[in-house]
Each structure stands twice: as structure tokens, then as C-alpha cells.
Amino acid sequence: MATQTPIGAQARTLPRRIATSTGGGTLVFLLVMSAIMATQNSKFLTSNNLFNVLNQSVFIGILAVAMTIVLIHGGIDLSVGAVAGLTGGVVAYLMGHGVPMGWAFIDALMLGTALGIVNGLVITRLGVPDFIATLAMLGVARGLLFVWTQGVPFIDYATDTYRTIGGLKDLFWQITLPMIILLVVAFAAATMLTRSRFGSHVRATGSNREGARLSGVAVDKVKIAVYALSGALAALVGILLAGRLTTVQPGMGEGLELRAIAAAILGGAALTGGRGSVVGAVVGAITLAVIQNIINLSGLNPAWETLIVGVIILAAVLADRLITLAASRSTATTSTPAADTGSGPAMAGT
Amino acid sequence: MSSNRLLRFFSTEGATIGILLVGVVVLFSILNSSYLTSENIENILVQSTFVLIIAIGMTFVLITGGIDLSVGSVLGLSAGISVLVLVDGGGFLLAVLAGLAVGLGFGLLNGILIAKAGINDFIATLATLGIAGGALVLIAAEKPLTGFESSTFSALANDKVVGIPLPVIIAAVMVVGLELVLRRTGFGRVVFAVGINREAAHLSGLNVDRTRIAVFVISGVLASVSGILLASRLSSVPPRLGQGFELQAIAAAVLAGTSLAGGRGSVARAALGALFLGAVNVGIQLEQIDTAWYQVVVGLSIVGAMVIDRSVRELALSRMRMHVPPDTTPAMPDVLAGAKEGR
User: In this predicted model, what pLDDT tens digit does every residue of A329-343 receive, in sequence order?
Assistant: First the structure.
């Protein structure tokens, strides 16, 4: 579509291009929603509140970036919330027992990566579907944290430095360390996906696994690497979350996987693989945080959040389908008459 | 020779889950003599009922190649709505009908979003999971969902008929009835056809869209049946009732050899899967082991069951290949389905 735009008209159509780009609709929605909220509540558009929202969105943001990579490659990782909880527990336990913070972080990252590799191996070597393998890992990791803690939360491990790492203290202005980490992770992931050989292998595997395999991509190795990356980033979130909360409850990170998937989908990722945007995922995570913030500021019951997010996901996906249909219809009239994509068999399932 | 017979037995559909179930029952009855008492068996059966009923609906959806993540939340909301009707003074019949209407409505919504609007099953039902789950919390915040007085409603999940708890009878009737629907009716054959090859089913003139909507309606209605029974059992509805039930239902179906890729599954086997989960859960409670082990065991048995199922299938397939001339390899969609699974 972008190639059809005449060079001189680019500036004029920029908003339109944003709106039709991957996840761009969510950005438009986020801006409109924020604008409306700004007129309704004077507290919303203060720098305090906006930085607070950004600070809240970091955890889902990092997980959504990781999930986007997994989704683009054609998989799904349901274990990230449980892995974040377990690795956060490891950091809290080790620091509570006098292990230096750096070592505790390295151990947590190694555990997260290892659990991700296990996911990848179970999927590739044992032939278990991604959904089931990571669902099983969710149960195992979550269960282990409960068994290990006996339901008693870890407390009294957080140092001042750790609180800063968790984002409880500003570095400068109102910027916290987790915000910078999210920025770095997103930038690295976007560069990796678009510029590196590994990134092109990830995208190729997601668009056409068999085709990628036949052209010499080691699809199994790519899959294991993708899940290892997802596990490592889940551990990073676990580390940050344990610093933010200063206690690790056995249920820490529960449900994060579904929010991360929601953010990735709002950002334009497709569950069928081959499509997704890292920037879109971050926008999706910020959208979820803004919705939560608006509900808090309006004094509504927090349960509205799950309901509204459900409706918004449906709206986003429906809008996306309408745009795709319209696009395929307009290309169909100019090129091929075979555009019978209506509803039915052509639609890919899960 | 005997290894061949053993292989044939193991490659029978449902052998893996049957062996797992027997194994866990034997294990726990060795560990604890009170495990195999009639009282405890009854306990296992009743506790398994709620997941079992939604696992049946999930099986229909999975066979068509779909997935329904909303069943837990729909279960909770149906339970909440029927108790709300009772608390507001509506009668038993109205309460049950209102609960069923919730399941029917969400099932239709899911089906239309997926089959007609072309939204991916996972996303559509993830969204309705959020909507139904949020709605229940909001309703529960307005009004405590407890303290109704309807002996008929309470009887649903607590009465016994000829010594068998009523929910167990209801579940058994559903298993037999819906297994027959799946195996013996034209609709059942269409469900399998859609799951094995949607494009081919469409081209052979089958109404694919209507079938896909129908399985989501079945799943939604069964979720509300389970919710109504659970509300009757608990006589109150906590705001987060049903959360995580969808994963248990998927686990039960997958343990029983239902393929996420579609085309393979059975109601009776899904029931065995749910009974396995119930047997493990009750056994862990009885042994006074930390209940968190339940999640670990379920996670490991899912992968274990899949691996056993798959390796037996591949072994059976390679044996069959040795006995059949290569150019006349018979069509074995059921056996092949396991081998080419994966995303």
C-alpha cells in the first residue's frame, strides 16, 4: 500500500498511513481515549500521572514485546507470567539469604532462559503443540512457586538499589530505570526482527514454516531460541516486579500472559504467525495501562477493566479485519477476481 | 507376537488416559486406605463433574479445530445470574433458564464472531472471557450472591437418586448422549469433517459456518449447566468463580487424546480426563500434600500423556507400514492426525 503513495503526498497521508499500519489503529484509539479523558478529569494530563502510567506499563510492555516475537514466529507462550513469578521468587529468596544482587539476577535470568529452552525442546523434540507445552510449563512453574513458598510470601529482601531498579524511585526527572529497560528491550527486539539474520528467520518461520525449512532455515533451532528469549525476558520482568512489589506473593505474575497476549494483539500481532509489531506491542501495553488508570481515576470498580479490555480487543480485531477486507477488495478489483475470502474455510483457525 | 498385541491395545483410542487413571487410583489407594472407600469415590465423582461437563463442550470445539477460552468465565457468570434471579425472588425455573440463556448468548456470540466475522478463536474467546469474568465481578459487587432459599435449586447438586448424587447422573447422561451425537448422528460426522479438513468440508457442501457456531453454542450451554450445578453445590457464587476452569477443561480433553489441530477427540475419553484430574486432586487433598503439587502433576501429565500417545501412534504406524506394500498405504486419518500435529 505504501508503495502506491506518490512521494509528494506522503506528508498529507501520514496520519492515514499510521492508522492503517500494523497496530496503528490502537495508537489512534489510545490518543482519542486520552484526549477525551483529559477533558473529563484534570488529574489525567499531569506529568505525575502520565509517568505513573508509563511506569505501570513496563511489565506488560516487556512481556508483550517478547510475546510479539513468539507470535511472529508462529508460536504462543502461556508460561511467561508463571516464569516471571518463579524467577522473581528466586531473586527474593537468594537476596534474603545474603547472595549479592547481581548474582541473584544472573541466576534468575539463567533459570528463565532454561525454562524457555525446556519449552522449546518439549515442542520440537517431543512434538507437543506450543499451546499445550507452555500451558504445562505454566502449571509446573506456578505450582513450584506455591510448593516452594508454602504459600508464605518472601519479604524483607529489597535494598534501596533494588527499589530503584524496580522503578519505585526516579532516576532523573520522572524517568525510572524500568522505563529505560523497556525502551532498550523494544529497540533491540525491533532491530533484531528487521535487521538481523535471526530476525528474518523468525519471520520466515512464522509466515511459512515449511517454506522456511526447505530454504534451509533451522526451524527447530529458531523455535528453541525464540522460547529461550521469551523465558529470559519473563525472568527480566520477574526481577523488576520483585523490586517493584518488595514482596513476592506465590501468585505473583498470575494472568500476565493473557495481558501480554492482549497487548501484542492490540499492537497488530496475528496468532497465525508472520505478523506483529514491537512498537505496536508497546503501544498496546500503554493502552492497557491507560485503561486501568482511567478506571482508577474515575473511581470505577477495577472489574470494569477486564470487561472493557475484552470489548476493546474485539473492536480492534474487527476493525483490523474490516481494513484487511477492504484492502483485499480494492486490490481484487484491480488485479485478480479470486478474492473469495468472505467468511468460511479460508479463515485460519487457532 | 505378544508385543504386537500389546501395541494394538496401547494404540486403542483412550488407552493412555485409561491407564493413567487406573495408575493414579492404584497409587493413591496404596498410599491411603481411605482413598477407595465409597464415600471418597463419590467425592471424586462429584468434584470432577463440573470440569467434566465443560470438557465435553470443549471437546466439540476442539474437534472442529477451534478453542474456547471463555468457558470458565461463562460458567461463573451463569452461576451468578441464576443465583441473582433466586435472590431477587424469581423461581427455580426462571433461575435455571436465565443461567442457560447466559451460556447460549455467549456461545452464539463466540460462534458468530469466529465463523462469520472471521476472528481467530483464541482472541475472540479471550475477549469474551474478559467480558463475562468482569461482568460477574461487577454483579457480585452490587449484591452478595448468596442466601437464596430454593430447595429445588439446592437439590440439583446435593440430592441423591438411588444412592447416586444427582450431578453425577446428569453428567453421565450428558456423556452418553453427547458421545452418541458425536458418533452416530450426521451432525457429529460434520463436526469431524470440519475439523479434519475445513476446506474439503466446505467444498463438499457442508455448512461449515453453522457447524462452527453450533459447537460454540454447545460449549457455552454446557458451561452454564456446569455453572448452575456449581452454584447449587456451593449455595453462593464468589466473584471469581470459574476462573482457570477453561485450562482444566482443555487439560482434561488433551489428556484424553483430543487434538488441538482438530479432527480427533471423544466425549467419553474427555470424561476420563476430567476424572483423572479429579482423582489426582482428591488424592492430594487426602494425603495432605501441598495442594500446589496438583498444578505440577497436571502440567507434567499433559506432556507425558501426549508423548506416550504420540510415540505409540508412531510405533503402530511404522509397524503397519512394514506389513503393507508401500504403494497401497491405507488412509488412516486418525493415526496420521497424531503424527502431523503441531503449529
Answer: 766 555 444 433 333
Name the residue facing B208 among A261, A262, A344 (closest C-beta).
Answer: A344
Q: Is A135 in contact with B208 (Cβ distance < 8 A)?
A: no
* Residue A234 binned pLDDT confidence (cut-offs 50, 70, 90): very high
> C-alpha grid cell for residue B326?
508401500
> In chain A, where are the structural domains located?
25-319
- For A25-319, the fitting CATH number among 2.40.128, 1.20.272, 1.10.3470, 3.40.1350 is 1.10.3470
Q: Domain B27-342, what fold?
A: ABC transporter involved in vitamin B12 uptake, BtuC (1.10.3470)
**B262–chain A nearest CA distance, Å:** 10
Question: Across B59-63, B232-236, B335-339, which has the greatest mean pLDDT?
Answer: B59-63
Query: Which pLDDT score is estimated for B301?
Result: 82
Residues 6+ apart with CB under 8 A from B95: B82, B83, B85, B86, B150, B153, B228
Higher pLDDT, B99 or B158: B99
| DSSP assignment string, A87-140 | HHHHHHHHHHTT--HHHHHHHHHHHHHHHHHHHHHHHHHH---HHHHHHHHHHH
**pLDDT digits 0-9 by tens, A100-123:** 888 999 999 999 999 999 999 999
Quickly count: other Cβ atoms within 10 Å of residue A164's Cβ: 16
Q: Do A310 and B129 touch (CB under 8 A)?
A: yes
pTM above 0.80, yes or no: yes
